[in-house]
Amino acid sequence: MRPDDLALLRTPGVPTVSPDGRMAVVAVGRPDLGDDAERSRLWAVPTDGSAPPRPLTSGWCDTDPVFSPDGRWLAYRGAEPGGPPQLHLLPTAGGAPRRLPGHPLGAGRPVWSPDARRLAYTARVPEVDRSGADRAGQPPWLVTTLRWHADGVGVVTDRHSHVFVLDLPLGTEDDGAPLPRPRQVTDGAADDADVTWSPDGAELAFVSARHARADRDLVRDVYAVPAAGGALRRVTDGRADCSLPAYDPSGGWIWLTARLDLGPDGLDVAGRGATLCRVPVAGGAPQPVLDPASTDRGDRTSATVLAGGAAHLGVQRRGAVELLRVPLDGGPPEALVDGPFTVHGLAAAGGVVVATVGHDRSAGELVAVTPGRRRLLTAFGRGLATTGALRRSEERTAPAPDGAEVHGRVTLPDGPGPHPVLLSLHDGPHRQDGWSLSVDTQTLVSAGYAVVRCDPRGSAGHGQAHARAVRGAGGTVDADDVLAFLDAVLADPALDPERVGVMGLGYGGWLATVLTGRTTLFAAAVVEGALTDPAGLLGSSDVGWWFVDQYLGADPPARAADLTTPTLVVHGEDDRRFPADQGVRLYAELKRRGVPAELLLFPGEGSDLGRTGRPGHRQARLEHLLRWWARWLPVTPDEDLPGEDGHPAAAPGDDDGREPLTVRATRLD
């Protein structure tokens, strides 16, 4: 894979399914290198595989489709170039989409009422008009809270997110029929999210932090409010981080995802997995349905999906995200998709579950699951897959110094090697590096590098004990795990133990500085969007007031003074998670002490520029990574480098790069 192959990347989002189960609709995003923008449109996909997918919309960036309960309408978000997303309504029987009344900062994902006559959603409500180009002429922000800004959003202290309801009159079929203005049903100095309807349509549930210590802890509760507006009531008991509520059909329970029991200070989140719970509608403590010690939700579905008497969700497991069906009556969970795959999003209706499923060579395809059968419905990734440039990863395990198992993967380029090695450390630490497409890995492998990734202590998908082992101790047992895993895989004759580099993103960047301070093994390093100066994080990061204490401890060591490894520092200028001054300080200290260093700073980008940044920046970033590694860790000239004179041929058995899922799966060509 080469940097300009980003143009071939197709990434499907979370699907929706028609009430009769016959049709799925999904947004598919693509980087447009020509316009330097992310484009997306909706595709209609028959769930029985009777026809290939067809494009449904042609907007600039159409996302988040949702079928109405009667199947007559499709609501979705659509954005014009440079504008925020607004709600649109498309008749499923045919016709042009209609834009619904807008919001200056955009509207969130729409949620249909049971009678299909109303939409609920959240939207940020600006207290001050800051839309002008003259930022210097805007009034100041008065900040009085710890939680006053957020990565990817900016300052939020005067633009909180609240719940709205939009009534759709019977004349909706007439494009000229006026629509009423949306009704705001919540307010106050708090952000509201994850709105959902009660079965009778009389009540809305949502998630918010409105308790007395809301500015000093990470607790979020489920609240309920009459759909017509009125007094709020708190449903959960104020001890958990709640999300994604959904009423069950009986109306007696609310199902949700929660990180339970955050301790007396409400900050004990390190390594706690998010698990499926339920709470009585009348109120109480969230009751775990799955074991919090071994389950951690990992899909990106923006709802708890209840259908056919069961809840459906993705659970992280040893690098995979499995699709589970959990009966509401207490029966045993059933895995609908397992193995080396990642379930990114899902929907269910009419006896069909549709999921977006990816793996290490696929950004995702739609899979329909019916009793006893899985059917692969799409081939959105064919353009990239048929280049033959994507390589399989191999699972490896190794013992840590204390005997614990460290699980990870190695991705090898063509040829016998020995190949130069790049150790790639994931962000988090409570994430996993598993069975999903990594553009970085595929690009570096195509350039001739073996890429090593692993899930040290602190990572998700290996149980809560594994994840909580780094609570207040980052850079200790996790660093031991990484070095043990690397030492074990370097025994492979296909890897060259004399040519090794390290790269890390976010917390992984912090871990890279820990490792380069402990060993001279690495020829060079890339530290991206990273925490490098814990003391400076307190007032500048959106998580700085709690993250360092929870993950690194009260007195983490300073790292820059220990470093002599040549280092490329990469940062987004607008990063509010680990702000750019973290990278700038590391760069300046290295340069001041004569260590070879470069600073690659991307204007206007946040913490996730490699995945969600402007396509031109993402391409430039990959090119700079290749340039840096070619300088400090060159691939020897006598190695057979895939991609030097075009793309390599597909490996035998790769089916031209297309890998169908197993278990009676079929692919539409």
Automatic annotation (TrEMBL):
Region span, Disordered: 639-669
Q: Does the keyword Zinc apply?
A: no
Q: Keywords of this protein's UniProt record, alphabetized?
A: Aminopeptidase, Hydrolase, Protease, Serine protease
Q: Peptidase S9 prolyl oligopeptidase catalytic domain: from which residue to which, for each copy? A: 435-633
Stretches with biased composition (Basic and acidic residues): 658-669
Recall the GO molecular function terms of this protein's record: aminopeptidase activity; serine-type endopeptidase activity
Q: Which domain of life is it from?
A: Bacteria
**Quick one: a GO biological-process term for this protein?**
proteolysis
Instruction: Return the Pfam families for the record.
Output: PD40, Peptidase_S9
Extract the PANTHER family matched here: DIPEPTIDYL PEPTIDASE FAMILY MEMBER 6, SERINE PEPTIDASE S9 FAMILY MEMBER
Q: What is this protein called?
A: Dipeptidyl aminopeptidase/acylaminoacyl peptidase
